[in-house]
Design brief:
Chain B: Keywords: Cell membrane, Membrane, Transmembrane, Transmembrane helix, Transport. The structure holds two protein chains of two kinds. Helix content of chain A is about 85%, strand content about 0%. By secondary structure, chain A is an all-alpha fold. Chain A has one domain (about 1-125). The longest helix of chain A is centred in the first third of the chain and has 42 residues, at about 1-45. A two-stranded antiparallel sheet of chain B has the order 1-2. The radius of gyration of chain B is 17 Å and the shape is globular. Classes of the chains: A mainly alpha, B mainly alpha.
């Protein structure tokens, strides 16, 4: 009985941790995108030639350093794209803390596939 | 310029509300609205849609995971099939013309409308016996239903079929840039016989992970245009936050009845465009 109660509490903790992680990621990305958009409309310039924008992580970071509006928006989008990846990563840790090793493996497999697909995107 | 962004923002709020309600991801609304209403090229609409799916998923998951409506174990287990499928889809996407994308999309929406119509009166699944594999994987769960005002315990069946369907859902997601939530909800609802709210919330959780798996490819291809995807992300995040509040306080039968005509209408629009009428 005591064990079961403990386990339920752990699962509850895990859900709260994941929920909070998500909220932080979501709020951060929304804030960055908003700043980028405001800057874009205020300066009436994207920081890039017409109809172009950064399409690689390196280009986005370079543009961000020189505070180009489009690069700022793209940074926010990148943070947003990364929230699910981050969410999976946090789940691995929390399943591990629960000593639920079967799900540590399952979640790790998902994480590896995710990282793999990000790398594939870069190579192309 | 600002006006266009505001229109995109408003469309995206609506997309976020419906997407989070039904576990579909906003893409299913964002793509038709951007292409049909604003004349955005499908190439950029798909990029914006990937962003909207992730925004719906992460925005809604904040609440659904906290309220334990999302079944994390089912989500993670099925995610193996979906992410593998998404990779497959993303790499064959460049080989198909936008005309066919419209037709595939139209048929996809029409089919889901019929699926929903058939299940319009079912509030909770009954008489479900858990498969041994479901017990082994600890997939069973429970959540508190605010409308029925009680804790709903549920069993899980059809694990293998559900897993197979998820791979197909992943391929479609990578191919069309949508979270293919309809297929995910369908697999969990039809094969695994989960309560509707658990299916939509778990689908919501998963679609973001699946979309993220192909987002890298779309970013590098230049499908993600910041002046479109930026307002989409903001709008969908706002909409998804509202949508989760509505969903927890709504009967699933009500949600279905609102959405069926919308799906049917949009699907016909897309089909006509694809056929060049």
């Amino acid at each position: 009985m005591e064990d079961k109660k403990n386990q339920n509490e752990k699962i509850e903790n895990m859900e709260i941790i994941i929920s909070k992680t998500l909220r932080a990621g979501v709020l951060l990305s929304a804030l960055i995108i908003l700043i980028g958009l405001i800057l874009f409309f205020a300066t009436k310039s994207s920081g890039y030639p017409a109809n172009t924008y950064p399409t690689s992580v390196v280009a986005i970071i370079k543009g961000l350093i020189s505070l180009k509006p489009y690069a700022i928006i793209m940074t926010g989008l990148l943070v947003l794209i990364l929230t699910p990846v981050f969410r999976v990563g946090v789940s691995i840790i929390t399943f591990f803390q629960e000593k639920d090793y079967m799900y540590v493996y399952i979640t790790s497999a998902v994480f590896i596939i995710l990282i793999f697909s990000f790398l594939l995107g870069k190579v192309e | 310029m600002i006006l266009t962004s505001l229109i995109i923002l408003l469309i995206s709020i609506v997309a976020g509300v419906f997407g989070s309600l039904l576990g579909l991801g906003g893409g299913i609304i964002v793509i038709p609205m951007l292409t049909l209403l604003l004349g955005v090229n499908i190439k950029y609409a798909i990029g914006a849609s990937i962003v909207s799916v992730i925004a719906t998923s992460s925005g809604a998951a904040v609440t659904y995971v906290r309220d334990k409506i999302t079944n994390l174990r089912i989500g993670m287990f099925l995610e193996i099939a979906t992410t593998t499928g998404a990779l497959t889809g993303a790499f064959i996407a460049g080989l198909i013309s936008s005309k066919y994308l419209y037709i595939i999309f139209g048929l996809l929406l029409l089919y889901s409308a019929f699926t929903m119509l058939k299940k319009r009166n079912e509030e909770l699944p009954e008489g479900v016996v858990s498969q041994p594999i479901a017990k082994k994987l600890k997939l069973e769960g429970s959540y508190y239903d605010k409308v029925l005002k009680k804790e709903i315990k549920y069993n899980v069946t059809g694990v293998n079929k559900g897993f197979g369907m998820m791979y197909i859902a992943g391929v479609i997601s990578g191919l069309l840039g949508i979270g293919s939530g309809i297929f995910k909800v369908m697999a969990m609802d039809l094969f695994m016989r989960l309560p509707m709210k658990v299916s939509t919330a778990t689908s919501n959780f998963m679609i973001g992970v699946t979309a993220a798996a192909s987002a890298g490819v779309y970013l590098v291809r230049g499908n993600i245009d910041p002046k479109i995807a930026g307002p989409v992300a903001l709008g969908v995040l706002i909409g998804a936050t509202l949508g989760t509040k509505i969903m927890t306080n709504m009967k699933s039968t009500t949600i279905r009845k609102i959405f069926i005509p919308v799906l049917a209408y949009v699907s016909i629009e897309m089909l006509l465009k694809g056929l060049g009428v």
